[in-house]
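B., you asked whether I could sanity-check this one before it goes into the benchmark set. Here's the sequence:
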Amino acid sequence: METTIKYHDLPVVVLTGRPNVGKSTLFNRLLHRRRAITDPSPGVTRDPVEAEAHIAGKPLRLIDTGGFKLDSTSSTGLDDVVREKTLETLGRADLIVLILEAGEITTEDQELIEVLRRHRNKLLVAVNKTEGGRREAEAWNLLSYGFSQIYPISAEHGDNIAQLEEAIVSRLDFSRVRTEDSGDRPIRIALLGKPNTGKSTLSNRLTASSASIVSAIPGTTRDVVEGAFSWKDREFQVLDTAGIRRKAKVTENIEYYSVNRAIKSIDNADIVFLLIDAAEGLSDQDKKITALAHNKGRGIILALNKWDAMPGIKNSFQAACDRIHFFFGQLEFAPIIALSAMTGDGVDKLLNTALKMYRQLTTQVETGKLNQALEQWLQEYPPPSAPRTHFKVRYAVQKSANPVVFIFFVSRPQAVKEAYVAYLRNKIRAELGFSLVPITVEIRGSTGDSRETGP
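And here's what the prediction gave me:
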């Protein structure tokens, strides 16, 4: 298990806006866990809520502030206190993310915009609630307030969050950040896929070398070609593997051993990049490769390569994602990235996603925190009460990280249905910071009987 990295002198990013504009929802989205309380009622957040976040592979201090109100409606004067605290927090910021809502600008928005004019050099504007392109034209109208750029997003649904994260990181100076010695090893990436999907081209681009032979002839790569590179101060090891074909088509002994080595590389990897030819689409073989990685608890990124050769049809990427999710029903959590290994388009996003995924893979949740969350989950969805189907969930522990395995100790393991296991897995994924990775859940009883469910 890798040592936890301790950071010092992190850049500070402050989220601000009027009440109920979506600050806390965005805060939780950027943290990849529920840290701030969200509610339709305005003014839920009062004190600034802050946490260490990793955005686009970079560490920073993220702060959610109370809603900025123009006039106090609280008999206790709390609105005035919240406003002053928000203004005080803005002074600490290296970057201020002003959150507006697409549509009519309120007097509170206008007042806050005026307040922030003196901070224009460290201001970034996100326009929330534009999911699916809704009201995006209204969002762009906000440029009339003198902003140089805006970022239409949906904090609730995740639309365009990756672009916002990249924009945040690009505006920050990380040169002062210090870390305590952690002894980290390189992140190990295995490039897998059918022959001629661009694995070697991607490997060469990542390593800035020509270590892997690139050819239009399927099956050019036979040995696993290892390379190394650095991205955002993190070391990577990349394993370029032979293309994996259906067993019936493997006719040469040399290819047989090459394919076996490629499959074996999954054991040595932290994350698998499954390269899919965007024009050819998915195959049964892709599904088998992914199942191997999934069952071993490896991180999986589905890379739609050669996207530059695809016709520029509107919503074509979303359509491709929908097909993949239909094909890989159990892998809705796995990120899908469109890229061109030849031109380099999308490679930055691929690596940023890998950094985020690796952090999730190596996260270890404290037992106390896990069981506090479990109490809430059991209240929200209690186990069945009928005598034949009833069971009690006593406590839970995280057995391991990378692969991520949780154990739930229950009174009657045989009574726990897969639907309830799926509920627990989804809660872990959504609330404990494991949104991108496979999770194995083991159900055990106090007498030693147990059962295990897949990631």
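One thing to flag: The two ends are 19 Å apart (CA to CA). Otherwise nothing jumped out at me.
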